[in-house]
Design brief:
- By secondary structure, this protein is mainly beta.
- The radius of gyration is 33 Å and the shape is globular.
- It starts with a strand and ends with a strand.
Length: 757
Amino acid sequence: MSVVIRIIDNTNNVLGDLDLANFKDFPLALTKGIVNLDNLKARTGTYSKTFKVPNTKNNSNLLSNVDNINSKKDYRDALNRKPCVIIVNNNQNDSGFLQVSKSINKDYFELIFFGNNIDWVKSASELKLNDINWKNNSQVYTEIKINQATTGFVPSFPPVIPAVFDYDYYDHTYPYISRGGNKSNTSTSVEDFYPCFYIRSIFERGLNQLGWNVSSNFLVSNEIKTLVGDLSNSMTVADSVVNRSKTRASRSSDVTNYGGDIKLVFNDDVNPPNEDTYDNYNPSTGFYVVPTNGRYNINVSLITDNWFITGTGNKNLTIKVASGSSTFFGFGLNVIDERTVSVSSTESITSTFSFQVNLKQGDNLAIFTKWTANPFSSFSENVKFKTGTFFDIQRSSKLSEGDNFLLTEIIPDSVKLIDVINDFTRMFNIYYWTDVKTKTIYFEPRNDFFKPITQALDWTDKIDFSKNYEIDYINTYKRNVEFKYKELNNDQWLKGWQDVNKRTYARYNYILPDRFAEGTDTIELSLFSASYGHSATEISTTNSTDTSPSTLKIWNNYQTKVPTERINSYNPKILFFNRSTQVSSTGSNRMINIFGNNSIYIPYGIFETYNNVTSPMNLSFTGADGLFSTHYANMFKNIEDGGRLTAYLRLDDVDINNLDFRNLVYISTPAEVTGYYIVEKVQDYKPLSDGTTKVNLFKFEDLGNVAIDASQKGNNGNENNEDNTPSESNVYVINSGQIIDVVIFNEITQSFEQVIL
């Protein structure tokens, strides 16, 4: 038996092999796992116990001299991670990275190994969604671009006839969601649409960018392909983008400009209040290089003095903003806006000009001045711009119709790839398996994750029955298991609905049998909040809730009419996007007035079936077709009635090397444990040992589903369910002869709640 731990760099170049202790004493022990049914939030990978390697010169160098606190090398990098592979008997057994725990007395290092099958999780926790390379990242906020994304139109030059429509061409779309503050009370406008990102694209773009392939039938299914995240919550660019554009520069000395169309150079961008943190402006050439596409606010303040003029009459001072791909005025550098002020005095005056212009990333921008006399006399006339003359520029944070922007700019800095992955996992009970050899992440909902029993591995002969085996049953959960979305933020309508109805929308509580301890365990999403349905009369030529299009609403007040103020800064939402016809209860097509034109094709968002419009899936945890019933009911039946076998198995490096947690294993004897099993965890496998390894196996069998509490249901199933009336509850009078207490029986908690009279 031989073991090699080979240190590599990030491009798989070999840096060297660690010196190991005597192989017989080498304590490397690997644990591999997939999921812990005792903890629904846990998804595990490969890791080791702490092990030791000798402090040799070779090891010290490979581990960045972590034993020398005064080393000029960055030992903290060594404490982070060192990519490596583990080779057993000349075959790669695993790959991942080492973390240095400590160095002890110049004698040895303590190390921990983590497999690459969880390395992508760490990388995903560091990748911001606004750092992902999105398709069609560069956008213009116009009717045309919105219509293209919602229809899947693929632009081409020259145009293709017939036109091509393919939603896979886009990573984003534009559902109409009612947020209040519409410009029109009968029609949509551009600013009523915010980009939403396909969840499939988030997974594929993000993980591909991290170097991983994605394989999931569920992710590419027709239903999930239309699942989107509303991440931006307002059409504003991130603060970091705005700050990147900020520049202020001024004149630190007087300067005289002659005649017309002369560039005004502001020679100080350093001394406060001036600033140019990102070096956008060159105080020598007078050019500002535009950092990103967008609408910019420009202010120019000119202090002028000493007008020399041979003619008579008023003097005109014109300030011009020029931008373009070159630095030659009138040749690729052209005037995009200008202002003129008339001055009749020869004394010192201050003139202020404000501009708002669309600029293109990488273009050069400069301020030009031109002055003339009326009547015009000659170019020998001049004007002095005094010390303190300045200009400042900053990109506008709010996007308006016609603005250029990047999709990456509207995603908040705080949202990470792992946030979306975690919520997706909890919604659909996703299991993962990572093939580090092909750099592929496989994942499906639990009910579809495992391979057929016909492909099960027979591990009967591997069990060492000379050692005790254990059969146990899960009892670690609290009796009440709560599934819910993230608590609402700034979604005042839905908050009001919850207050009136005395329950949390889309939440489901499952009650386990009596053998489980009292209390509540909560499975809660960390990013997305739930959304409620809406009959969008505000974008319909009719005022009927039946004939108006159905979509979702996010309002800043609990009221009947659409708010006049638009909601901002709400939690991200997850929903299905569709562009299709909607049929009313009477069988007629509903219509949307989109950009002034009536259409039966409605770009809408939906969370669960509402007002005769069917959702591809019910995204509420409640209901017979809800997330709990669909993705958790079978598993909880196994938690209640299934069992776990913990035994010692004779596993060799081939077994470990080929271990695929999607494969079931079969045990034929003894009769007490016969059956098919999920491999939950392989504990402390020692590559250099001929002994046995402790393995957790959970019985895989179809025990059916737990019963679904029909009283816990969503409220989007009925038409016109938008009133402010609380749901009915049974009221009981205590001590019948005299009212001394009134309580309401809560169907959700199955308990009596006191009413304060």
